[in-house]
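A quick aside before the break. I want you to see a complete sequence-to-structure record at least once, exactly as it would be stored in a machine-readable document. Don't worry about memorizing anything.
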Amino acid sequence: MSKVTGAAWGASLLATGLLVAASPARAEPAADPTSIWTLSDENSSITTSKLNDKYYVNGLKLGWTSPTDAVPHFIASIGHSLFGEGQQRLSLDVSQSIYTPADTLAVPPDPKDRPYAGVLLLGATLLQDTDDTRQSVGLQLGLVGPDAEAEQVQNGFHDVIGYGHTKGWAYQLRDEPLAELLGQKIWRVPLGTVGGFETDALPQIEGGLGNLRVYGLGGSIFRVGQGLDADFGAARLRPGLSGSDAYHATRNFGWYFFVGADGQAVVHDVTIDGNDFRNSATASRMPFVGELEAGVAFLAYGMRISYTQVVQTEQVYGQHGGPHQFGSLTLSAHF
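That is the input. The structure line, written in tokens, reads:
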């Protein structure tokens, strides 16, 4: 086990202890009558001055989150049945994720490396909050394959910036429908003040079930700053530690630095295991993945901007270059 994996799983064990010890949920937070628009981009090239597309190359998401308690009755009833009382929001989003092997010039690609894959998803998530918990259940529907337009997006962007084309997209996974049910719970555990700054921990568990992925995740984020009760951490594309797109600033200006770690047990990942219902490229998947992350978030004038740097252990046996890195940038605004 690598040092990154060990650290991530150590943090996960700590998070499990925190989950057990966390106190029962208290009252609901203040109502928010405005909706939120969110744009997120994750890219492996953010981490270096030399563009180097490989593995998880890019994830792009556009999302909308409703005002509090502006949720259709039948969906609200599901949330109350699952989670009890709490303040509810509904989030809708569209996302695209792009994956390639390490050598994007080889034709045919290395048969032992991660396959080329594009994933296009529509998602709906019900969020339910108390003062110190956020719980959610969501459904993602979409497809993997050429109709996800990953080749066109990647090589079209390369044309704009004057970078060469990725050569192996003819070998990508074939078109296939995808579905995934997601569940998540985050605890907000205040840790007191240090030098006048607030600190807290955000232990989290998450799971996904479907032909996109089958996985379980446990981990925690630790934060220091001001106005930490505005959200449950910075947003990221799943799987990974994500506080989601919803926030409600409790002061004119808030900010925080954060570090976190998670461990993921992965039973199935179509982007590595290949198509479920037809022959395709495939690779030998690692059953456990660890992540370390660090970043910063600012909240002001109804907006939130965050940046997260992620270091991720190998997802494929024989993966080139050791742990993978990517940056995650998210901008949200109230309307």
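Two observations worth writing down. The longest strand covers residues 253-269. The chain has one domain: 3-334. We'll return to this after the break.
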